[in-house]
Specification:
By secondary structure, the chain is an alpha/beta fold. The protein is built from 16 helices and 21 strands.
Length: about 550
């Protein structure tokens, strides 16, 4: 690999680290902070294994600079509010910065994205090689478009001050902008395997100049059937290049990838798949089939963001329509949506216009949105890995979170077995609508808009009178309760502040909702603030001065 120092193949965790560069320019402008998923799994017997329990390496004892991260990147991280490395970063960075192949394992939310982004940027900036048309210098492969987009959002502000160019490659959109980007020359490509293979087949890209390759969520790529394409892509990268792989498990052919493409990898583990998340509480609610939607509506109309998981695309679409008709701003996420719809819906959920995201397991991996304090399994998943990944959308980076599984009579045995396999001990309760437990699981005043208000908030096409269902009101005229998903930004190096919820102000058009003093939920990021909802704009603002929902202002909280 041109201009790279020789790669050590020692299997120990200690190594010489590259010196920070003092010649790079600083970043300018607002910087979004993003922390994505991490992986977790079982030990790999043939690799050098360096276990790193979260309690074994106090984060205060190390800094990014002491781990070998250049000063310029440290300054950018500090600007994002990221001051202390997480354990998976503390353990992997010395090896990855030294050029070793690394197999990283850590529980979801442990900060693995920075664990591979920082060494990639550092080594590219120091290698001295030049960009060439159609020949990227580094490659990150991820299974879904959403994960590709979020990795790219995380890497862009860090790459900018180093003068490195990045781009995304995935299907569902026109390929010409991607072709043009490759032609101009790019340092880092973040890609889904299928579209990248297509572009290579058309002669728009070659991987013979790739110095560093990252496989993120490798086990999920296996679940989606991408491994044959991944092998073809890896075969096109130089054998002497550095390779970093992050995977929850080593089944379904992942062990073959490790043995074939990673050279004497050093394995770093942070927690295991069965390790309990101290800040996550699990509840199983035994409900009747007739009461299930009413209970779901109660939970989702509480303040804050909620993710609702279903087994099928049809059910996700149906539940979304039912919630909108009942007055809850909800959007859907599943494989039948076009890419622009998926992007639009995720943006609405991220910036708070939609307070519920109803999704299939496509959203169980790789999607991170700040301050999701409640995950609801409207349909219990079929296997425990899906349960763990779904649940991992909350209680991230040390924040609190609640997971609720709705189980009908015929699902009780299935859910009991699922919990056992997932290694959790949920609190099981028989509930009916208006049960006091629901207010404990999702604190705050229930707020339901008219269907017209929901459509306005989400900027959805107006439905005809024949299509609109009778709306339900959850209060009387007076002061309303805004939905809170407050100013606290969950993420690395800082904890969310309490309160700071979103509130809506303005005159009511006959559909104001009653409210009460603010109440918190989970980690304090869910709150309800006194105010009233405007039927014409349904605008939302928070104490931090974010744009109203009419402006579609998108939050850039740390992820």
């Amino acid at each position: 690999m041109a201009a790279h120092r020789p790669r050590s193949r020692s299997t120990t965790a200690t190594s010489a680290r590259p010196s920070p560069s003092d010649t790079m320019s600083e970043s300018s402008g607002p910087i979004p902070a993003t922390i994505l998923d991490a992986v977790f799994g079982a030990p790999l017997a043939h690799a050098a294994d360096v276990s790193s329990a979260a309690s074994s390496v106090p984060s205060i004892a190390r800094s990014f600079a002491s781990l070998g991260v250049p000063s310029t990147l440290c300054k950018v991280l500090a600007g994002m509010g990221i001051d202390e490395p997480f354990p998976i970063q503390t353990s992997t960075l010395p090896d990855s910065l030294a050029g070793r192949d690394v197999l990283g394992r850590g529980r979801t939310g442990s900060g693995k994205t920075l664990a591979f982004v920082l060494p990639m940027l550092t080594r590219l900036s120091e290698s001295g090689t030049e960009r060439r048309s159609g020949r990227p210098r580094a490659l990150i492969l991820a299974p879904t478009r959403e994960l590709v987009s979020q990795i790219h959002a995380a890497i862009t502000p860090l790459a900018r001050p180093l003068g490195l160019r990045t781009m995304v490659v995935y299907g569902g959109v026109g390929q010409m902008p991607q072709v043009d980007g490759l032609r101009k020359g790019v340092d880092i490509v973040v890609a889904c395997p299928g579209r990248l293979e297509d572009l290579i087949g058309q002669g728009h890209a070659k991987l013979d100049a790739v110095e560093i390759t990252v496989l993120d969520e490798a086990d999920h790529m296996a679940d989606l059937g991408f491994l044959p394409v991944v092998k073809k892509l890896l075969d096109r990268t130089p054998k002497q290049g550095q390779r970093l792989l992050f995977s929850a498990t080593l089944d379904n052919g992942i062990d073959v990838i490790v043995r074939r493409y990673l050279s004497n990898p050093v394995t770093h583990s942070v927690d295991s798949e069965q390790s309990p998340v101290a800040t996550m509480t699990h509840h199983v609610l035994h409900v009747s089939a007739a009461d299930r939607f009413e209970i779901l509506l109660d939970l989702t109309s509480a303040p804050g963001r909620t993710m609702v998981f279903t087994r099928t695309k049809h059910r996700a679409k149906m539940l979304t329509r039912q919630l909108i008709a009942a007055g809850v701003p909800a959007v859907e996420m599943h494989g039948n949506l076009a890419q622009n719809a998926r992007t639009r819906n995720l943006a609405a959920f991220s910036d708070g216009r939609a307070t519920a995201l109803v999704a299939t397991d496509i959203a169980a991996r790789g999607i991170h949105v700040d301050d999701v304090a409640l995950v609801i399994h409207a349909d219990p998943p079929t296997e425990h890995k899906a349960y763990l990944h779904r649940s991992g959308r909350t209680a991230r980076a040390g924040n609190d979170g609640t997971v609720v599984t709705l189980a009908t009579e015929d699902q009780r045995r299935e859910v009991t077995q699922l919990a056992r396999q997932a290694g959790i001990r949920p609190t099981t309760t028989v509930v009916r609508p208006n049960d006091a437990l629901l207010a404990q699981l999702a604190p705050g005043d229930r707020v339901r808009l008219t269907e017209a208000e929901v459509i306005s908030v989400l900027a959805l096409p107006q439905r005809t009178e024949q299509q609109q269902q009778p709306r339900r009101k959850a209060g009387s005229s007076g002061s309303g309760a805004g939905r809170g998903n407050g100013g606290g930004q969950g993420g690395q190096g800082r904890r969310p502040s309490s309160g700071g919820g979103r509130s809506a102000s303005g005159s009511s058009s006959g559909s104001a909702r009653t409210g009460s003093p603010s109440s918190s939920r989970g980690n304090g990021s869910r709150s309800a603030s006194a105010g009233s909802r405007s039927g014409s704009t349904a605008g939302r603002s928070n104490s931090g001065g974010r744009p109203s929902s009419g402006d579609a202002g998108r939050g850039s909280g740390q992820r």
